[in-house]
Structure formats: C-alpha cells, structure tokens
Amino acid sequence: MDEKYIGCKLKIVTVDGEDRKEFEGICHSFDSQFKRLTLTNVVSDSGLKFRNLSLFSQDIVDASVIDVANARTQPVTVEGTGASKRLMKQHSRPKHLQYLKDLTEDDVIGVANNSTGVVAQVKTGSNDISDSPQEENYTPSNQHSQTELHFRASENIVLLEEINKEYLDSIKHLKEQSMIGVAAEGVWLSRKGKLCWVQISTGDKIYLYDILSLGEEAFRQGLQAVFQNSKIMKVVHDCRPLSDIMHHIYHVELVNVFDTQVAAVMVYKKYQPKGNLPRYVDGLSTCLSRYLLLPPDVISFDRVRKYMDKDQLAWVDRPLPLKMIDVLVKHVMYLLELQASLMKIMMEEFVFGVDVYLEEMRDAPEDDIMRALGALHLLPTKFKTLNSKNLSNENHRKSDYDENGFYENSTGVVDPKIVYSKDLWHLKKRNDAKC
Known about the structure:
alpha/beta, 25% helix
C-alpha cells in the first residue's frame, strides 16, 4: 500500500461467509508483513462507531478512497491496471478454503468415507439393507442376507428384527457378559418420543435390535432382564434420554450403569485447580477423539441443522439404509474401549498410591525395615507429589463461571466436515448472537 493513502478517509468492504459489512474511517497504517490495515474514527454501515479497527487483507473484498471535498468515491490502488484500480491487491482464495464443498446428506448424517476401513459382514433378517427406495408397508422377512459395511473387521454385527432363535441366542450371549456397551436411537428419544433402535456391543459382537419391528416383546423376551441385571455393567454415553424412555414407556430400570459422559466430567474436574465443574458436556465424538485418538473416518459426528425433525425421522425408515446402519454401529462399537480409557485416568491417583505402598517397604534397605514397621500409621511422604503431579497432562482453557457456578469449557469442534464455526464461548454476552 502506498504511504500517500495514510490519513485518507477510506471505505472498506469485508465479507465473512454471507455477512457483508462496510466501514468508513481514516487510514492510520498498513502492516505489509501481516497484511493488516488499521483505521481510526471508524463508522460501520450499521451505525456502530470504533476508535480503532484493524482489518486483514484476506477479509477485504473492496476498498476505495473517499473524496471528502466533493463527497464521491474514487476506486484507487497501488497494484493492478485498468481504469478502475483497487486500493488493496486482489487476493487469491486462501489455501485452507480451496477444498470447500457443500455438505451432502451423507455428510450431515455422519457417514464414514467408504474408501477407508475394512469390509465386515452384517447378518440381517431383511431382504435388503441398502440405499433402495423406502417401502411403505415394510415387514421383516424370514430370508437372511449378507450386507457389506465398512468399519473395523474384528466386529461381528447382527441385526435382529423378530423374536426367533437368533434373538434368544443374542440374549443368552448378553447374559454371559460382565460389561456391555449400550446405545439407542429414535425420534426425540424420551417419554415424549419414540425408541427405534437399541445397539449393544459385547466386544466381539454388536447386536442391532429393531425395536419398531420387535415392539415391547423385545424387552419381555430378554432385554429387560439384561438391563436390570446388576451383575452386568452397562456402558452408555449420556444415559438420560434412554433412562427416561425405559422407565416411563417400557417400565425398565437401568442398573449398574457407567456413563462415559459423566466420567469425562469427572476427568475434567480432576485437573482443574479448584475442582471446577464444566458448563458444557462432551459428546461421544469428542470423547472418542480425545481419549482414544480415533481418526475422523471411524467416528459418527452428530450435526444440528434446521431440518432436525426430518433427520430424526430417518430412524423410522424401513428398510434402514446402509449409511444409517453405519451410524448405529459407530455409536456403540467403541464404548467399552472408551470406558477403559476414562477409568484408567480416573484411577491414576489411586494406582499411583498403591504403587507407592508396594514399593515403600519392599525397596527399602535392610537397616530401614524396623523404622518402616514403626511408621505404618503415617502416610508415605511420596504422596506429596500428588499435589503437583499432572498425571495425564490434561489442559483446559481458563474462563469465567456461568450463572449456575459452572466453569466455561467450550473447546470448539473436531468434525472434519466443519471448516468454520462460531462457538458460544465468544457470543455469550450477545443476546442476539447466532452461531
């Protein structure tokens, strides 16, 4: 930028997505290294006034000098040719935006990229699980088929849509387990909604129970006994909706539940200086990415949009498209691994303490054994390191408290399909803020 424009009154036009803004102000300086233009005494097209405003060249789409004497606008620039020259250099599309594309229906649902992963077989009681047109009067068929699904090869998936020997065998298998992963899908899952699917993982098998086809008989024929068996731990991520609909609609009580969302809250609290509780809870996709370091193509990302009612009704479709079965599987297949990872973090201090106890006398010199026996009523001095020891190196950003005394903890998105977002963290003080 030419120094002769310093002190001139400029009109700057910026675009952020679909948000177009205009600013008028005095050119104070231009940093060529960072491509930053600074204006003073600025007035926006909405009437807002700023003493100083800095804008970056990649956000500016048009700039011109205002001739105060005759109140007209003259487009000028240092670079470029032609009758109408621009003040700022016409910039190319930034590198990180070159691969932008519109989200497809599959992207909104969160279907994995089929170019990755290993093919596994899904045993089902329907004629076809594919992207074929929906049948209006769908009824389960007795004929079994094999359908391909892209995900981890070691899993064995069984889709159950009628009470038969295969269903009873699945219940028998579940009753032999000490821990299972449980997920559910439906339309506004609660006592006011509808339960469509229940997914259960045992580590070597994944059972997909079609509750719309099975009806309440599914619970009378074994699922209720499984959910109410205190010897079987149920690993669930956010059990609130499932607990509500089970209790009020199906009269089933969930017992011995390990909620991974609650566990993530406890892990967060553990590494806060004052034991602060977070305001926002972590979704399943965030936990899988953070604690298991899973790549995005094996995670199903839930996305909220204006067609949410229509998205919810997708679980009612029969036969269920393959892309939706992919989502069912991903919502349950890693719950057991997630539980183990969170449990390890929550137990770190305890395990550290036990290791200290094991070593206290065992590794002591012979001359110190009698002294150690006389000090069994005292806590070993190594426990002092727990006050300053950050066992998992968990870092959370500092923030204010909300009106309920919870700590602000918005951390943004990890969804690879989202290239830009405004989180509530930056908008909390604006009543009209939209994200």
